[in-house]
Amino acid sequence: MAQSDQIYALMDEISHCTACPRLVEWRERVAVEKRAAYADEIYWGRPVPSFGDPDARILVVGLAPAAHGGNRTGRMFTGDRSGDWLYGSLFRTGFANQPTSISKDDGLALSGVWITAPVHCAPPDNKPTTEERDSCFPYLLREMGLLTSVTVLVALGGFAWDAALRAAVSLGCERVRPKPRFGHGSEVDLGRLKLVGSYHVSQQNTFTGRLTEPMLDAVFLRARALSEERP
User: Fold this and answer.
1) How confident is the model at residue 231 (pLDDT cuts 50, 70, 90)?
2) Of 64, 82, 157, 186, which residue is the least packed, with the fewest Cβ within 10 Å?
């Protein structure tokens, strides 16, 4: 089976996972109760698969799908304000063909970037438990193992930073001691992979000005430069 076929087969497997009872109950309840603005829509209400270019050199790691974003649309960072920020930046930095992410069939395509999350189901209050993170972790490992062109990891937030570090070491990258601390613009050389940190594109960060468009663009431009340094 070709590499891209293996990746998409894994995404299909992920989209049918029922391993975490709390997350299953929440994602399905949200899909039934809905938000008033989306009352006429059919929610995805399942684990949200990753999205992007299977030959990507940059892997963007988020946290988990939003209840009325990815859990509604079925695509990572699609249909909410976080997605507006992320895809807007990817468009400005040359990784996306358009700056918007409204639905799975809106024509958005990524080049050089693949987007994933350590947890594929929407969690209550956007806070997965340690057990839920660990339950989903094997999917991240398998996914990264199949994304053979990736040389740079971009972690959106501390949760993603920790997951990316753990996954990279599990896949044979160098273990850095002391453990690297997350920060916006932080960089770590893990051997065959580089890790770059960015504040998450949550409204908590974007509305308050903690994360600005130039700050986010700078992270992706830096990730591009790092990816071009590697063979």
Assistant:
1) low
2) 186
